[in-house]
UniProtKB/TrEMBL annotation:
Domain Transcription regulator PadR C-terminal intervals: 92-178
Residues spanning the signal sequence: none
Membrane spanning residue stretches: none
Name of protein: PadR family transcriptional regulator
Species, as recorded: Streptomyces albiaxialis
InterPro entries documented for this protein: Tscrpt_reg_PadR_C (IPR018309), Tscrpt_reg_PadR_N (IPR005149), WH-like_DNA-bd_sf (IPR036388), WH_DNA-bd_sf (IPR036390)
Residues covered by the Transcription regulator PadR N-terminal domain: 7-80
Length: 185
């Protein structure tokens, strides 16, 4: 997937400035498609030049004017073409898994702190996802009352929640195994 497609999806969900878009990437989209602010601004400029997006100047009080981007017809067409193209299932590159296998040739206990650090990062991300789900998908706007876009956002979020829970279960298994092996040595 190109960054362009992630930007198109985000702008179709809600038009915004480059800064607002970069913040959305930091808060949500970035969990499954990472991009720096510089990359986002560079791609926005190219997409505007290609006619995929349009920009309008928005006056602000006590601040410089900002450009608010929205998707133009050629951008919608490009996204539609991409949505209909088949994609290959992703291959996983997991450096920690290679380290865990490699620990058999060194001191497995030396890896415990690193696995605990990864576990904490995934626990933090799960807490962030769950807080977002409570904020955005509970209460009077519970499933059944959401529009199609919200339903699809929620199903992606539920996938992230399931992934983080699975990763935490696996890391707990890894830690138990490392502790057992260390105790046997």
């Amino acid at each position: 997937m190109a960054l362009e497609h992630a930007i198109l999806v985000s702008l179709l969900e809600k038009p915004g400035s480059g800064y607002e878009l970069a913040r959305r990437f930091d808060r949500s989209i970035g969990y499954f498609w990472a991009a720096t602010h510089q990359q986002i601004y560079r791609v926005l400029k190219r997409m505007e030049g290609d006619g995929w997006i349009g920009a309008r100047e928005v006056a602000q009080q006590a601040r410089p004017d900002k450009k608010e981007y929205s998707v133009a017809a050629p951008g919608r067409d490009a996204l539609a073409r991409w949505l209909h193209e088949p994609i290959e299932p992703e291959s996983v590159r997991h450096e920690l898994a290679v380290k865990i296998r490699g620990a058999a040739f060194d001191d497995p206990a030396a890896l415990i702190r690193e696995v605990e650090r990864h576990r904490q990062a995934h626990a933090d991300r799960l807490a962030h996802y769950l807080a977002g789900e409570r904020r955005d998908f509970t209460g009077p706007e519970a499933p059944g009352t959401l529009d199609a876009g919200q339903e699809l956002q929620h199903v992606v979020l539920r996938g992230g929640i399931a992934y983080e829970r699975m990763t935490l279960d696996w890391l707990d298994d890894v830690l138990a195994t490392l502790h057992r092996i260390a105790a046997e040595r």
